[in-house]
Amino acid sequence: MAIITTRGLTRIYNPKTVPVYALRNVELSIEEGEFTSLVGPSGSGKTTLLNLLGGLDTPTSGEVVVDGVSLAQMGDSELIDFRLQHIGFIFQAYNLIPVFTAAENVAFILLLQKRPCQEIDQRVQELLTEVGLGDRLNARPKELSGGQQQRVAVARALASRPRFILADEPTANLDSQSAMKLLDIMEKMNREHRMTFIFSTHDQRVINRARRVIRLVDGAVESDQIQQPEPHLA
Ligand SMILES: Nc1ncnc2c1ncn2[C@@H]1O[C@H](COP(=O)(O)OP(=O)(O)OP(=O)(O)O)[C@@H](O)[C@H]1O
Ligand SMILES: [Mg+2]
Question: Which of 36, 172, 158, 196 is nearest to 94 (CA)?
Fold first, then answer.
């Protein structure tokens, strides 16, 4: 069964004044274990779509169904809880909390979920080790490079074992080497934990590493193709 299905997903900004048709009738189905890239020109609706898939915004019409449940049926607090438990987010700007250490940034969501401290400590250590930062647990974001900060963001997104991870241009602020390293880590999480990823990008080398490429133009799906991902030759 698909993890995410969208039906007639449409988002019009400012419908009453100067309407902007950001998404038009998008029909998508995302299966568990996908490694999918969302592409298209600037303004084509990628961020709008990711926000809707993650329940950060509500559609003008149509719906997003996650594991058979329509997000529209959830009340505000239920949706907040659902996001916390089921969806991992990685944004273009690293969005780490500057006064927290790497470990605290990753632990944060688990603390919100009121998990036992011992479990949190162990999980945080495990995750930061997996993203290659096992020796930087106590570093604050400003002491880390952009690539390292984004790897903390990946660890944080994975912390709650979400159903899927939405990443909006996760490599946009990274040099190409750090970008490829981040993709290596995402790919490993995808392969070893069957974690589903949907990431938007403008970078052709990042697109080449996806197994499915969904292309938006003017808010509509222009093409949706499966491709043989390019292996990363370090
Ligand atoms: N809050 C908003 N209010 C009004 N219009 C908006 C808003 N957010 C986005 N838009 C418009 O909706 C359209 C889609 O924007 P979106 O940010 O989803 O594009 P994108 O594909 O993510 O672009 P980029 O590649 O530049 O990030 C654009 O025309 C944009 O100007
Ligand atoms: Mg965008």
Answer: 172
Residue 137: give the domain boundaries.
34-50+74-213+221-226
Q: Is the CB of 44 under 6 A from ligand 1?
A: yes
Does the beta carbon of 17 sit less than 6 angstroms from any atom of ligand 1? Answer: no
The CATH number that applies at residue 120 is: 3.40.50.300
Residue 202 is encoded by which pair of tokens? 């403008």
Best probe residue, ligand 1, of 44, 52, 200, 216 (max atoms within 8 Å of C-beta):
44
Q: Summarize pLDDT for 141-196 with one digit per residue, the tens.
A: 999 999 999 999 999 999 988 999 999 999 998 899 999 999 999 999 999 999 99
- Is the CB of 43 inside a 6 Å radius of any atom of ligand 1? yes
